[in-house]
Structures are given as C-alpha cells and as structure tokens.
Amino acid sequence: MKLLLALRPCSPGLARRLAADDALARALGAKPNPAVGYVFSRFFDAGGPVLGKLLDLAEGEPVSFLRDMQCSPAELQSASHVEAVARSSVPQSRADSKATMAAYHQDSLHATSSRWSVRLPQRIYLSKAVAESAISHVDEWTGEYVLGAQAAQALRDSGLTGFDLRPVLHHKTGSAHDAGHHLVARELLPAALEDATIFETFDDGPRQPSTPRRYGFLSYAQGALQPSPDLARTAEPWGAWRTPVWIVRQRVRGWFESAQVRGWKFQPVLEEGTAPHGEHTQRWGDLLGRLRAAGASVVA
After folding, report:
1. Which residue in 24, 109, 179, 232 has a CA-CA distance of 20 to 30 Å to 274?
2. What are the residues whose beta carbons fall under 8 Å from the beta carbon of 54, sequence distance 6 or more?
3. Domain match, 7 and 106 both
4. What is the pLDDT along the chain (300 residues), one digit of tens a residue?
C-alpha cells in the first residue's frame, strides 16, 4: 500500500527552487508555466525521500497536495468488498444536464445510517448512447452510472443482487430511449467508520448540511458488510451532488472482468481489525501529522 501525493501550484519562488533540483524536478514532473514558473504534475510516493526534500525547500511556506492511493493486486484481492471507481464518462448535452438537474432538485434527500443524507437519482437524461460493453459515469457531475445494452444484459444474467436497471430518458420527450440503462441501488450500506482520514466540509455554504470528504480508502466495522447484497451504495454522499458511491463484493469484480465490461476500476474497502486497515490508519496518521507540522495540507 502506498500513499501518493502531487504538488498543487505553489509560489513562483518555491517553484523555481524545486525545478532547480534536477532529481526533484523529475520526481515531481516539473513543467514550465507562464503564470507561476512551473507546475508539478507527477504523483510521488509520500513514504519516500521526495516529500522531505520538498518540505525543506518550502522553508515553511504553506503547500498543498493532491492525493492518490496505490495497492498491490494481492491487497485488492484480499478485500471482501471493493469500491467501484469511474474510468470513463459519457457527456450530456446542455439540455440533458438541465433536465437531470431539475429532476435532482425535485427529489428529496434520503436519511441513512450515517450522519448524512444522500441523493438517490431515479431519472437520468442522456442523448448520446453508451458503448455496448461499458459502464460509464454520466458526465462529470451526476454521480450516476449507465450501462450499454450488452453490459446491461450481462448484469441481468449474472445472478448478482442489489441493483435495478432503469431506462435512460430523452430530454425532449421525457420517455425512455435506447441510450443505455441507469444503474440504481436497492440498498444502502451501514455507516462507514470515521477516523483521521475522514473529515466534513460545507461545500454549499455554512447554512447548508455538511458534506463528508476523505483521504484514503473506506473502512467498515468488522462484519458490518457481511449481510450486504452484491452491489450497494454507501450511507454517505461521497460522490458528486450528494450521491453515494458503489461498494461491491469481489464476485462483482470477477463478473466485470470475465464479462469484459469496461468503465470501472476498483480499490479495496477495509475492515476494522485487519492488517490492511491497521497499515492504512498508521500511514495516513503519520503523513497527516508530518504535513501539519510543516504547514502543509492534502486537498481532497
């Protein structure tokens, strides 16, 4: 398991100091930029020597990082459940987006076992058809997935539990058409564990409900996911527009690969009391403490 960081834009002075160190510049992916001198696009291992050199050169200047996680195939396989993450998206037209947003605002938020409510969209508008064998995220903002005809039939035939497939709608008629099939959950999971890797924000302003954010993998109490169906969504709105993300059993990942469906990648979901959960907790605790001490931060 690795924690990966990428430096966000920093001051021109720090950018020049970092770029002047050839080894550090290569590790950070330094690229000239007319606004700030250099930007740094490459992720690096937060447990290696790069972070220490970078923080030394920052000389106390506040810096922030994007984050990513990397696990081995064995670590992924050892998890009973995995999180499905989008690898592809299908764009909406302006009219599709407007109709979908109107539908979102007509639906109420749903109470869950967590501290947060979630949005569970039942209507998705899409003009462009999804690829036959793909699961695609709808645009960049919806939090929802649609399946092409071949992928949808394979899922119906799989024997997997916990999902429904709803028709995709056309913005002109409001009726179903053959652009794809909207993946809808039948069940929400128990609340995820809250630890140092999870925090809350107020994305819509201080008068609106908070929104959870996280740095690392999701974790659950021991045995909490045992009764869950094959496909389910979280009790927290980790996705866009207060939508929950999909957590699936390993057999779903096996089906996905054997059916040669495209559009998802997977990352492990951790169980309290296991070695991967302990490692994850320790690594993030150490990293966040080190960054705080240097006046640095991770941007979720």
Report:
1. 232
2. 7, 18, 24, 28, 63
3. no
4. 999 999 999 999 999 999 999 999 999 999 999 999 999 999 999 999 999 999 999 999 999 999 999 999 999 999 999 999 999 999 999 999 999 999 999 999 999 999 999 999 999 999 999 999 999 999 999 999 999 999 999 999 999 999 999 999 999 999 999 999 999 999 999 999 999 999 999 877 777 788 999 999 999 999 999 999 999 999 999 999 999 999 999 999 999 999 999 999 999 999 999 999 999 999 999 999 999 999 999 986
Length of the chain: 300
Task: Note whether 85 and 38 are same-domain residues.
Answer: no
Q: Which residues lie below 8 Å from residue 193, measured CB to CB, with a gap of 6+? A: 219, 220, 221, 272
pTM: 0.93
Side-chain-side CA neighbours of residue 234 (13 Å): 28
3-class secondary structure, 268:
strand
Counted domains in the chain: 2
The phi, psi pair for 185, rounded to 5°, reads: -85, 145
Identity of the residue numbered 181: H
Structure tokens at 2: 């690795």
What is the token pair recorded at 171? 């913005």
Examine the domain organization and report whether 142 and 108 are in the same domain: yes
